[in-house]
Amino acid sequence: MSRIAVVTGANKGIGYAIVKGLCREFDGVVYLTSRNEERGQAAVNKLKKDGFNPKFHQLDITDDSSVERFREYLKETHGGLDVLVNNGGISFMFDAPETFPQRVAETLRVNYFGLLRICKALFPLLRPHSRVVQVSSSVGHLCKIQGAELKARLASRELTEEELTQMMRNFVDAAAMNTHKEAGWPNSSYTVSKVGVSALSRIQQRAFDKDPREDIVVNAVHPGSVITDMSGKLGTMTPERGAQAPLYLALLPKYTEIKGEYVWHDNTVMDWVNGEVKTFRPDSPNLY
Ligand code: NDP
Fold this sequence. Notes:
288 residues, alpha/beta
C-alpha cells in the first residue's frame, strides 16, 4: 500500500513549495489540497508542467462537510495517512478594515480551530511512523505571551487540549470586550493563534506517546520570514527556503527523538518554554 502525504492550503506560498519538495523526496502519493477547487487544480497543473505528479483534493479546514468528505475519501482510497502538514492559515494586514474583535474571531477560526478540526478528523487515520507538521510562526513562541499566569498554563505539561481550546475561546471573548490585554494576551490575533498551534502540538505529542500506534510524531515549525502573499511579499526567504524545515520535519526518520518540539526555520530545536526567539520583526509588519 502506498504511503500518503497531505498538505493543507497548498495552492500557493509555502504550502505549494512543501508539496513540490514532497513530490521530490517523499516515497508515496502527495496530495495538494486547497479550499478553492480552481486555484488548487491550477497549482497541480503548474507542478505537472514542471514534471511533478501531486494529486488534488478540495479541503477547506473551516468547513465540517469538506473535511468529512476528504477524510472519507482518504479512508476509502488509501486506508490511512502517513504525513500531514497543517500549513493553511490566514493573517490580516495591519490596516485591514475589520475591527480587532472581527480579526481575532476569524484568525482563530482558521488558524487554531481549523487546524484542530483537521487533526480531530485525520489523526485516527494516521498509521504507525506518521509525521505531523504544524506550521506555526516565530510569533508562535511562548515568549510572545506577556501574562505570567497565561504563560504558566500554556507551558504546563498537564495542559489538556480542552483547556487550551477554552483558553483560545476566552481570548476571542476578551478581545470582543477589549479586556484581552489586562488578561495577559498580546494585541495580536495572529500571535495568539500561532501560540495556540505550538501549545497544541506539545499536547498532541503527549497523546501520541501513549498511542498504540508506534512512533507517531508531531512538531511545530517556524518556516522563516517568507516572501508570500501573507507577508505582503515582505519576507526575506523564497517559499522553497521556507519549505525547508517543514520538509525536514515531514520526513524525519523512524524513531526520531525530535518530537513535540518547536523547530526554527534552520531545523534547530528551540526551547519553547524558557527560551527566547529573536525576530528582527514579527514575521512582517502585516501580521495582526
Ligand atoms: P499564503 O497566504 O501564501 O498561503 C496561505 C494558504 O492557506 C493559501 O493556500 C490559502 O488559500 C490557505 N488557506 C487559507 N484559509 C484556508 C482554509 N480555510 N482552508 C484551507 N486553506 C486555507 O501564506 P504563506 O504561504 O506565507 O503561509 C503558509 C503558512 O505559513 C501559514 O500557516 C502562515 O501562518 C505560516 N507562516 C508564514 C510566514 C511568512 O513569512 N510567510 C511566517 C511564519 C509562518 P487561498 O489561496 O484560498 O487563500
